[in-house]
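User: Can you write out an input/output pair for a complex, sequences first and structure second?

Assistant: Here is one pair. Inputs:
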Amino acid sequence: MAVNLNAPRAESLHAVAGVRIGVAEAGIRKANRKDLTVFLLDEGAAVAGVFTQNRFCAAPVQVCREHLAHGGVRALVINTGNANAGTGEDGLVRARTTCIAAARLLDVAPEQVLPFSTGVIMEPLPVDRIEKGLPAALADAQPAHWLRAAEGIMTTDTLPKAFSRQVQVDGVTVTVTGISKGAGMIRPNMATMLGFVATDAKIAPGLLPALALELAEGSFNRVTVDGDTSTNDSFVVIATNKARHAEIASFDTPAGRAVKDAMQEVARLLAQAIVRDGEGATKFITVRVEGGQTGAECRQVAYAIAHSPLVKTAFFASDPNLGRILAAVGYAGIADLDQTKIDLYLDDVHVARQGGRNPAYREEDGQRVMKQAEITVRVVLGRGDAADQVWTCDFSHEYVTINADYRS
Amino acid sequence: MAVNLNAPRAESLHAVAGVRIGVAEAGIRKANRKDLTVFLLDEGAAVAGVFTQNRFCAAPVQVCREHLAHGGVRALVINTGNANAGTGEDGLVRARTTCIAAARLLDVAPEQVLPFSTGVIMEPLPVDRIEKGLPAALADAQPAHWLRAAEGIMTTDTLPKAFSRQVQVDGVTVTVTGISKGAGMIRPNMATMLGFVATDAKIAPGLLPALALELAEGSFNRVTVDGDTSTNDSFVVIATNKARHAEIASFDTPAGRAVKDAMQEVARLLAQAIVRDGEGATKFITVRVEGGQTGAECRQVAYAIAHSPLVKTAFFASDPNLGRILAAVGYAGIADLDQTKIDLYLDDVHVARQGGRNPAYREEDGQRVMKQAEITVRVVLGRGDAADQVWTCDFSHEYVTINADYRS
């Protein structure tokens, strides 16, 4: 049961000129399942990516980094059912074999193909099935297939995740459309499981890597479901440069800001969608920390709250057991934190003042907010002017059920 | 259902000369419950403690630190049902009032009393009930009451936790007896919720603070249930100096080692008992990390594994989903970790070799180990000679049920 998230309608997702998408059933882990997705990019597209900081990063992540450095990307091949992680040297060979197979069919170099895998860890990728499935995926390729792609990359997700925005630049309509997947093993560190955002905007190619990083910082790097940073997190930004406006040479212009804002909004919605559809989630929680000395320490406190099993189960129970939040603030690792300066709010309700219970706080007010499906926890540290926030969900029986299923 | 843990028998717990214990029902949160425990120490006892590193430390922890610095401790007053944490200035006053009340009855100074509280956070401590309950607790004081004390400090624990050992020093019998409590909000950082170890050994007073730290490092600082460091963690070591052997001036002597080993064993058993009785625990798991450059990085990896909700739910399911362990190793924060050097074992089963699946590994072997109630996960990092270990439990439906209960 995703929290305030609906399946997107196909017609709400604008095609991005220069991007075609095909999906096939390759039988990678289970039969009759769309498990192979291909993005085909016209020549001239710029691509940048940010990837997991997990040192056990998957083989496809290692190959993606190499191939992105090479440039000229023309295709993305994404499989579900198998993460090709914890697979050693053999896994790297299989990821490269995937690229070679796609490159041969498309008549490009293997370095122009980026591989992505998601699914179970430490099992060999059935690369023969991917090779067999590729022709059908390529034959399926259409600009309008964004919803099919969002469905094709799902694993434990209950809903496909896709968002689209259009902005005007020099009187030209520019489109931004993206998809994401992920519901568990979610605590992106650079990017999430899989996120793809494409635009037809014409952007100076040198700007894209920094933009990808900045978009991730405002989206995937601010969500967590269970604190488990995946081996396969990948977030890819594509600019096809097809729109006929003047090239954006800086994001500090009205046109640059319009495009970047649209991209940031799509990235944020995609990242939040992962939390809304987090394994077992019944609530969507914004943890905002203000009054810190640095953004980093605000994030540190926000993640301590967002990862606390005690806080997350209290949200599941709609129990304003707010001492658990204060305890998490206390152990977040700020050595010189002064508890007598800390205030805590649940939405508009002022719960704790100067480190103690606010005398005006009434339990029924906390209870009212805790029953909502969307809640903002706001902590004021009283140490400075920095602020940051993360988005997370609660921790329910359903999470245990999903993850205690044999090999979910 | 605690894992391989039974209630201690009263007769297995040796009294410690110089320590008397009394318990009473003060009705602090619920009626008809032993919720007030008093330790009375003869003059001449040395006392040291280590306390939570949580910056939101509870009022009694702050008062304990002050009073320990003053020295000459004669009594410990422990209540359950209310943690007196997140209570600001008012909470400090209530903790001091508890000490004043006990000091008056015992004709000592308030600084000679240490207060301990455990229970719900952010509610005012009903200090009037403690004052009313104290005379009954004092009247109950007996050297043989260790089991009563272990029962008196229980909260969500399903079993009392107490261990006792005796060693010979210069032909004199020296006793070490201790109790602990705690089942949730357990990731001690210096010490756990409440742990008390007393000995009648004669130990040079200057040695006690460092000993308390060392004992905590080998016990309470190596266990975790849910990663939530409590506001009230307190571990206290008492030496009554009643045994008639030559004073121990160093632990680097046969007598010193014998006493320290007995104390370390009792502390370790008490800490492990907390994990065995962890909220919802069905398995007791030792996470051992070897081949690190430093003990600290071994602990970092061990805690990443021990805190991963995905790893913990896989243990609950007896599912050898070992990629989840590798993923946790990868995100533990060692920046220059080389995944191709990592080996993973489940008890005697060699699961992963050089970062990939061990070709000789068979799923049924992993399955066999995962079904056991006690499991050792061993990770070899291949970076150096350091090693360390932590003890933890799995993550079950029962954990969610316990913590989603209104105000557990």
